UniProtKB/TrEMBL annotation:
This is Uncharacterized protein. It comes from Arundo donax.
Length: 42
């Protein structure tokens, strides 16, 4: 699970270089939601 989140962050940083800030924010929100849901389910 940790490795999965790490790849999301790396991909997010890579995409941000050629993308806008709002996209990064939505990526962060989605990642946060994934972390929260995984924490409650486990």
């Amino acid at each position: 699970m940790h490795k999965y989140c790490q790849s999301i962050l790396i991909n997010g940083l890579h995409i941000t270089k050629m993308s806008s800030f709002p996209y990064l924010l939505s990526m962060y929100r989605a990642n946060e939601a994934i972390l929260l849901s995984s924490r409650t389910s486990s």
